[in-house]
Amino acid sequence: MELRYERPEDRPAAPAPLDRVQDFVNTRINIRDTGQFRDELSSPAALRNWMSTRGLTSERARVSRADVERAIVVREGLRALLARDGGADDDLRGLDEVAATLPLRVRIGTEAGTVLLPAARQGVDHALGTLLADTVVAHSNGTLSRLKACRDESCRWVFYDSSKNRSGTWCSMATCGSAAKKRQFSERRRQQRRG
């Protein structure tokens, strides 16, 4: 049984601040070939810990079970967005619904240029707003298209595609890519035997 808790060695992390979005989506880890997963956002304390270690909330932020549920909706909506396969419309709708409750604001004329910021100053709304702002900014500057969910349905690990032509489809050729090629080869052999 293979557990994937870390970025595959052959994949670099996304550039900051998009790396926070990558880390956030990868808080749900599939356990290959078992249909089970490990979720780093399993409780209010776990969500607070994850967000505070990344500077998104304070260590004493109030986090409820409802906040955990909203965070998971945002995470799975972002995964669906990054998978770009159109198969998770419910997840995208859920992301849209939560995003509508998180006020964001534009700040013009800063040293960094025009920036998108969460309007909430603290707590889970600030953290989720920051992650969505990071996503929107990455979309506008073209880096979001490099953040992808592994095509392998049993994986869906989010990786940063640093290839020149942006053609990466698996988090790792050694694991998911190799397994996909083996399945394709086996399927072709079955088809040849039948036909």
Short description:
By secondary structure, the protein is of the alpha+beta class. The chain has helices spanning 18-25, 44-53, 65-83, 89-101, 123-141, 173-194; strands at residues 28-31, 36-39, 104-110, 113-118, 147-149, 158-160.
Fold blueprint:
Blueprint: H1 18-25, E1 28-31, E2 36-39, H2 44-53, H3 65-83, H4 89-101, E3 104-110, E4 113-118, H5 123-141, E5 147-149, E6 158-160, H6 173-194
Antiparallel strand pairs: 1-2, 3-4, 5-6
Rough shape?
A: globular
Alpha-beta content class: alpha+beta
Q: Count of helical segments?
A: 6
Could you tell me the strand content as a percent range?
A: 5-15%
Describe this entry's structure for a reader.
This protein is an alpha+beta fold and 195 residues long. Helices cover 47% and strands 14% of the residues. It is built from six helices and six strands, in the order αββαααββαββα. It has helices at 18-25, 44-53, 65-83, 89-101, 123-141, 173-194; strands spanning 28-31, 36-39, 104-110, 113-118, 147-149, 158-160. It has a two-stranded antiparallel sheet. The protein has a two-stranded antiparallel ribbon with strand order 3-4. The longest helix has 22 residues, at 173-194. The protein is globular and about 65 Å long. The chain starts with 17 loop residues before the first helix and ends with a helix. The model is unreliable at 1-6 (pLDDT under 50).
